[in-house]
Amino acid sequence: MNIALLFNPSSGNGSRAAAVDRIVASLRQDGHRVTSLCVGNAGGEGPDARRLLGASDLLIIAGGDGTVSLALPMVIEAGVPIRHVPLGTENLFARHFGMRADPGSVRAAVERREIVTIDTAEVDGRPFVIMFSAGPDANVVHRLAAQRRGGISHLSYVGPIIREALLGGVVPISLEVDGHVLFENRRGMAVVGNMAQYAMGANPARRASPTDGELDVVFFPSPISLAAGFWLAACKVGADRIAPGVVRGRGRHVVIVSEHPGFCSQADGEALPGAGGSPRSQTREIRIRPSSLRVLR
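The structure corresponding to this sequence follows.
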């Protein structure tokens, strides 16, 4: 089998090169042809990566969820199945499928060749696979991105979380699903899930599934940033299921609009650039892309 391997040395704490070398060596020992390419946080969509992918039967992505997300455009276009070697901070994609980073796990998956097809989604044309959010949690992601200079750990989030809790503001948003308006001009945190995965096991969109052709939408009213933290804590223990005020929906097309210039959003843990729209209005359009990604389990 011709196997391409994309490795992001900046994922997580940036000290995982030895683990990748062991995986490559074990696959070559099994007779597979493995070609490695090192990529950065800017993604792996250059001509070298696309040529490599075009000649491959499988893409192994060694990095974090951001590396998976940034490789999605060329992976979806090529139709090549992927396997995630979790080397990042949260590794939500790998967690969903029970994927591990040890060579034995990767070798066994390649030997089984069990491939499943799942949904992805897109926000303003940019693919993602796990979840999108707007609100205080996205503000934290933007704060971290502004200060990031290399690999990160869970401790890297402490400063951005504290600054958001003390200094952040929650902007009003309006949200509709499949043309139906769920609410207008409310302050809070919105999560659009394709998978029932979220940082630290909080899982706000717990009904999300990447094989049902729909997106799971959840809104937590939060007048201040600190309130969003309490909501996430509630999600971790399941208390959000009975809490009043939570707005839920499901559908294939989600539109989020904010009239505030401080509107921030993220997808798969990566800060998104400014939303489109008029100078006074920012809009995010999220759509499901059914059965668009092949995964080696």
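The mean pLDDT is 92.
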